[in-house]
What does this fold into?
Amino acid sequence: MLSRTAPAAPVAPDQPVRSAADVLVLADRLFQWADARTWAGPDPYDGLTGPLGRLAVHRVLRQALLQAVKRSPADLRPALGIRPLRTATATGCAAGACARLSASPVWRERALRLGRWTAAEQLSGRYAGLWRYEFDVQTRWSHYPASVPNLVATTFCADGCLDAGTLGDEAARTLARGLLAHLHNGEFFTYTPTSGVLVHNANLMGAALAARLARTTPLPAALAGRLADAARRAVEVSLAGQRPDGSWPYGSGPRLDWVDGFHTGYVLLRLDQAATLLGMDVLARLERGVDHYLRHLFDGPLPRYFADARTRRDPNNDATAVRMAAWAAERGFTGTDFARDVLAAVADRYPGLGTGTGTGTGTGNGTRTGTSGRNRALWESPRWSAAPFLDALTALHAVLPG
It folds into this structure.
């Protein structure tokens, strides 16, 4: 059992992480770093929250402003009046991460606190039961304001609340009804209520959440049946979208055909979760998907952002790689050594860990990297960096010995 008081040995900056106790040290450091900031900070997509964002009324202007803030090596947010955000997506993801360690009273209290914050942000009114981003979003294929819920936020928030035990029965029923009414089009789960585009990772997130609600929460039988049927059909839609090489494109459409690491990770993880809950045999599809993921989205232990492309460091992609390496070890697709090597390859840039952030540390493949001031705000994002990496660390803790 995890101890409230017994500290693990400190992890030196260049010391390899080998045991569950080492990972727990990193998880605690990361939690305390983010919690000291009340889980508020920059976000890659917060560029439209400042005064200039209200003036960007055209799609091209919105996307240009958002990308400028996201990609600038210097943090433009103070000059543009963009304030730190605490997002429900970050606290929901972190609540689920903490709940894995809830045998410890300390981590249990952390999960409950984050889960309560997240549950308090569940929408009422027209989109009752769902969650949103706290900022307007403009992508290459869609625009949706902060007032509109989306499936990714809803899934991370709902899972975190369910894991932490902070979503009551009525709230779960409202979520189930909202999921079917606003984020399902009769065939698959949609990113937003107004989107008709098939995005595979979002569709499978919706399927996994619907299956979880149907199988593990006290819902009326008819509602649970509708959720399970919708989840099963959504899984079948995305299975049909798997390419012969085992990969999934981001979405269905000529401008959505790229393959990247963290969305592929979401697809595999949620496909496995949904299929397990629904009793569907997708092992052969998972094996093909994992084979492509490991062959084309890693350079040794260092994750690639796009398939077969040059390495590009991104905190969410790196965190998802650790999370997926832990999942692959748990499912028997790889050994735990690979998961340790991936963690060693990516941990250098995350703040608060004492692993050499900003100065460069070993990546596990003979090279050295560091933030060197390059877009540091991206690595200090609670939603894009700290929360997913905490999720990855606690998942890895569960599969390592000790």
